[in-house]
Specification:
about 50% helix, two-stranded antiparallel sheet, binds flavin-adenine dinucleotide, alpha+beta, binds ligand UCC, five-stranded mixed β-barrel, 18 helices
Length: about 600
C-alpha cells in the first residue's frame, strides 16, 4: 500500500553545539618571557638574527613539525625480527614522519648551531631556545637529538686523543646536510642497574689485533635504536681474561650501529619496550654480540668520560620538561578563552585564572633556570686560558643536576594540573593532551632519577673541596642584592638571601651520616632558591614588566627551603631513619 512512511534510519542528531579545540599560535612570538630573556642577554646584532630565526621556527614548530609528531604517535615503531623467509633481520620499522624529523633537525642545524658557535658564548642559549620551541612538537625526536648533542660534546672533548673517531663522527653529528647527518645513542643502562652503572655493567670488551675491540653484553634500555652510532660503557678483558669490577673497570667506547650497507654491527634487537609514554620513540633491549668498537677514554675512566654527555642530556631533559609545561599552559590559556561554564568563559572565573597563574609562575621559573644553564654552558665553552671562569664552572656543575631533578618534577605536576584545566577533555586520548603528561613523566626517570641526581648534587659539592657552595652563594647574592632595597622586590630578595644563608648553615651543621637522607630536600632548596634569584634578577632589569615582578614575588612567597631548618632537622636523624623503615614496612610480610 501507500502512505507517509517515516524513514527507518535518520541522521543522528548531534545538536548544534560543538566544543572548540584549543589553538596554538606561533610559540615564539606568544612567549613574551622567553623573548625578554633573550633580549636582555643577547647583544643587539645577535638578538636581531636569532629573533628572526626563532620567529620563523616558532611557526614551523606548531605547523609542519607538530603534524609530523601526530603521525609519529599514530604510526608507532615496530620491530620485525624475522623476515618471511625465516632470516633474522631485526628490522626496525619507523614512520616516514620519524625520518623526516631527522632531515628537519639537520636542515635547522639543531645540533650544528651549538658547535659552529656563530653567536660566541650565546650559541648554547640560542640552541636550547630553539629546542624549547621544537621539543613539545617534536614527538620525542628530541631524545635522539639530545644524545647526539651529548655525543658531539664528548667527541669534541676527546678531539685529537683518538685517531679517526672525532674526524669521522663529529662532522656528521654536527652536519646541516640531511644526507650526512648522524644521530647517536647513549647505551649505559643494563639489567642489573641503570642508576648503579658501575655495579650493573656486565658488557665485556675484548681487544683485537688492530687495536679495536669486540663488545659483548646486554643493553637494557636503548632509546632511538635507529641511531647511527653510540657511546657505551664496557669492561676491558685483560690478557689473563680478567676484568676489574666497579667504576675503575669501566671504559668508554664508540661504535657504529650499522655498516655502510645497513647491516647491524653484530647487534641484535631483542624487543621494543612497551612504555607508558614516549611511544613514538623506539626503545629497545639490545644484545651486543661481538660488535666492533673503539675505546675513546683511558682505561677505567668510562663513567667520568661519559659525564660530559650526561651534562648535555640532563640539560636537554630539563629543557624538555620546561617546554612541556609551556605547551600545556599555552593550550590551557587558549582554551580558557573558548570554553564557557556558568554563563561566562573560563578566563572570567577568577579561581580558574588563579590556577593558570600558578602554572605560569612554575613555567617561568623552570624556563629561566634552563635558559640560564645554557647561558652558563655557552660561556664555559668559549672561556680561554687565563680567563677560565672557574667560579661559574662550579656553579654550572651544581645547577645542571638541580635543573634536571627539579624541573622534571614540576613538569609532571603542571602537566597534570593542565589536563584538569580541560575538564573531561583533558582525559581523552585523541585530544593529544594526555600524551603530554605521559611523555613528560619520563623526564624524572631517565638521565638519572630524582634521588640519584640529589646524590649527584652532593657529589658535586664534595668533589669540589668546598668551593661549590661558596660560589653558589656568591652567585645567588650577586643576583638578588641589588633588589633588596627595591620597593616591590625587596621582600622577595630578602627571602632569598635568608634562605641561602639558612640552607648553607644547614649544610655545614649536618652530620655526615645524615646528608644522604636529606639530599632530596636539600637539592629542592638549592633549586628553589636559585630559581628565585634568577626571577628576581630578571624582574630587576630595566626593561622588566610588572608581570616579571609579580612572577618573582609569587615564586619567592613559597617555602624556599622545604623541611630544612637550622641545624639537625628531626626528619634527618638516625632516629628518623629507623622510623621511616618502620612506617614503610608496617604490616609488610615477606
Ligand atoms: O637515560 C638515558 C637516555 C634516555 C634518553 C635521553 C633523552 C634526554 C632528552 C630528552 C628531552 C626531552 S641514558 C642513561 C642515563 N643514566 C644515568 O644518568 C645514570 C644515573 N646514575 C648516575 O648518574 C650515577 O651517579 C653514576 C652512574 C654516575 C654513579 O657512578 P659511580 O661510578 O658510582 O660514580 P663515581 O665513582 O662517583 O664517579 C666516577 C667519576 C668521578 O670522577 P673522579 O674519578 O675523577 O673522582 C665522578 O666525580 O665520574 C665523575 N662524575 C661526574 N662528573 C660522576 N658523575 C658526574 C657528573 N654528573 N658530572 C661530572
Ligand atoms: P633503579 O636504579 O633500579 O632505581 C629504582 C629506584 O631506586 C629509583 O626510584 C631510584 O631513584 C632508587 N634508587 C636507586 N639507587 C638509589 C640510591 N643510592 N639512593 C636512593 N634511591 C636510589 N638508558 C640508557 O642507557 N640509554 C637509553 O637510551 C635509555 N632510554 C630510556 C628510555 C626510557 C623510556 C626509560 C624509561 C629509560 C631509559 N633508560 C635508558 C634507562 C634509564 O636511564 C634508567 O631506567 C634510569 O637511570 C633508572 O635506572 P633503573 O631503571 O635501573 O632504576
Amino acid at each position: 500500500g501507500s502512505g507517509n512512511a517515516t524513514p527507518p534510519f535518520a541522521h543522528a542528531k548531534l545538536g548544534p553545539f560543538f566544543q572548540e579545540r584549543p589553538r596554538l599560535d606561533n610559540q615564539y612570538t606568544q612567549d613574551v618571557f622567553l623573548k625578554s630573556f633573550l633580549k636582555r642577554h643577547l647583544p643587539k646584532e645577535h638578538f636581531h638574527v636569532i629573533n628572526e630565526d626563532l620567529t620563523r621556527f616558532g611557526q614551523r614548530a606548531v605547523g609542519e613539525i607538530y603534524e609530523l609528531s601526530l603521525r609519529m604517535e599514530a604510526e608507532q615503531p615496530r620491530l620485525e625480527q624475522i623476515d618471511a623467509w625465516g632470516r633474522r633481520v631485526d628490522k626496525l620499522v619507523t614512520s616516514t614522519a620519524w625520518h623526516r624529523m631527522k632531515e628537519i633537525a639537520a636542515e635547522e642545524g639543531m645540533i650544528a648551531c651549538g658547535y659552529e658557535r656563530a653567536f660566541g658564548e650565546w650559541s648554547r642559549l640560542y640552541q636550547i631556545s630553539k629546542f624549547y620551541l621544537f621539543e613539545p612538537s617534536g614527538g620525542l625526536y628530541g631524545c635522539p637529538l639530545a644524545m647526539t648533542n651529548g655525543a658531539a660534546k664528548t667527541l669534541e672533548i676527546f678531539r685529537g686523543k683518538h685517531s679517526g673517531v672525532y674526524e669521522k663522527a663529529f662532522s656528521r653529528l654536527t652536519s646541516r646536510d640531511p644526507r650526512t647527518f648522524w644521530t647517536s645513542g647513549q647505551w649505559m643502562t643494563e639489567k642489573q642497574g641503570g642508576s648503579d652503572v658501575a655495579g650493573g655493567t656486565e658488557t665485556l670488551a675484548v681487544e683485537q689485533q688492530d687495536g679495536t675491540y669486540k663488545l659483548y653484553g646486554y643493553k637494557w634500555f636503548s632509546s632511538a635504536t635507529d641511531a647511527d652510532m653510540t657511546l657505551t660503557l664496557a669492561r676491558v678483558v685483560d690478557k689473563h681474561g680478567r676484568v676489574q669490577e666497579g667504576t675503575k673497570g669501566l671504559s668508554l667506547f664508540y661504535l657504529e650501529v650499522r655498516d655502510e650497507h645497513g647491516t647491524m654491527n653484530n647487534i641484535q634487537m631483542l624487543k621494543l619496550k612497551n612504555k607508558l609514554g614516549t611511544k613514538q620513540l623506539p626503545t629497545a633491549e639490545l644484545l651486543i654480540d661481538g660488535a666492533t668498537a673503539q675505546k675513546i677514554s683511558d682505561d677505567g675512566r668510562g663513567v667520568w668520560s661519559m659525564s660530559s654527555m650526561l651534562t648535555i642530556t640532563r640539560m636537554h631533559t630539563a629543557m624538555g620538561a620546561a617546554s612541556a609545561m609551556r605547551r600545556m599552559v599555552s593550550l590551557a590559556r587558549d582554551y580558557a578563552t573558548r570554553r564557557k561554564a556558568f554563563g561566562k568563559v573560563l578566563h572570567k572565573h577568577s579561581l580558574h585564572v588563579h590556577t593558570l597563574a600558578k602554572m605560569e609562575v612554575e613555567t617561568r621559573a623552570a624556563t629561566i633556570f634552563v635558559l640560564e644553564v645554557a647561558r652558563l654552558l655557552g660561556r664555559q665553552e668559549v672561556a680561554t686560558e687565563g680567563n677560565e671562569l672557574k667560579a661559574e664552572a662550579d656553579v654550572l656543575r651544581l645547577v645542571v643536576p638541580l635543573a634536571k631533578l627539579y624541573v622534571s618534577k614540576q613538569s609532571v605536576a603542571v602537566a597534570s594540573e593542565g589536563l584538569e584545566c580541560f575538564g573531561g577533555q583533558g582525559y581523552i586520548e585523541d585530544t593529544d593532551l594526555p600524551r603530554i603528561l605521559r611523555d613528560t613523566q619520563v623526564n624524572a626517570i631517565w638521565e638519572g632519577t630524582t634521588n640519584i641526581l640529589s646524590l649527584d648534587v652532593l657529589r658535586a659539592i664534595t668533589k669540589s673541596s668546598g668551593s661549590v657552595l661558596d660560589h653558589y652563594r656568591d652567585d645567588v647574592l650577586q643576583r638578588v642584592s641589588p633588589a633588596t632595597s627595591h620597593s616591590e622586590l625587596g621582600v622577595a630578595a630578602n627571602a632569598v638571601e635568608s634562605a641561602v644563608n639558612k640552607v648553607l648553615s644547614y649544610a655545614v651543621k649536618l652530620p655526615a651520616r645524615c646528608t644522604e637522607i636529606s639530599a632530596r630536600e636539600f637539592a629542592y632548596s638549592l633549586a628553589r632558591i636559585y630559581m628565585g634569584a634568577l626571577l628576581i634578577e630578571h624582574a630587576n632589569h630595566k626593561d622588566a614588566s610588572p608581570t616579571d615582578v609579580y612572577t618573582a614575588n609569587r615564586w619567592c612567597e613559597q617555602d624556599l627551603t622545604p623541611l630544612i631548618t637550622h641545624g639537625e632537622h628531626k626528619n634527618f636523624t638516625s632516629k628518623a631513619e629507623e622510623l621511616n623503615t618502620a612506617l614503610v614496612f608496617d604490616g609488610y610480610l615477606h
